[in-house]
User: Which sequence fits this backbone?
């Protein structure tokens, strides 16, 4: 009986928690190729704005546009992962531009990592209620 009550309380409390929105940005920009990675000088770093929801929607914005879509997600012991393939860039150069997107956030620390279109950068992330992130 106690186990049934506990299970009912846990399921009720989970349904009241709104989905999370993570907002991330980078302090540095790192580019990686097959043979090496290098950080760009501070004056050449492109600020990134990243938003990701637990439901899978995400946007990774840099330069003049964003990679946006819906990813497969996983939560492995508080390590949150979004993965999507062939995501189009919102303002592509002539001929188009797609990239695979990998986003990892360590939930307890608010530290993350993004890999998209040659960029492989560490991130600082904050969790916000969905209503605070409206319009992102």
Assistant:
């Amino acid at each position: 009986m106690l186990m049934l009550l506990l299970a009912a309380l846990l399921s009720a409390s989970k349904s009241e928690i709104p989905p999370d929105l993570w907002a991330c940005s980078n302090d540095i920009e790192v580019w990686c190729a097959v043979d090496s990675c290098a950080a760009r000088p501070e004056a050449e770093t492109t600020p990134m704005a990243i938003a990701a929801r637990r439901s899978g929607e995400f946007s990774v914005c840099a330069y003049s546009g964003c990679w946006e879509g819906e990813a497969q997600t996983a939560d492995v012991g508080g390590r949150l992962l979004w993965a999507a393939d062939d995501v189009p860039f919102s303002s592509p150069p002539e001929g188009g531009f797609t990239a695979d997107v990998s986003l990892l956030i360590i939930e307890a620390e608010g530290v993350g990592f993004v890999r998209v279109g040659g960029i492989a950068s560490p991130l600082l992330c904050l969790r916000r209620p969905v209503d605070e992130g409206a319009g992102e």
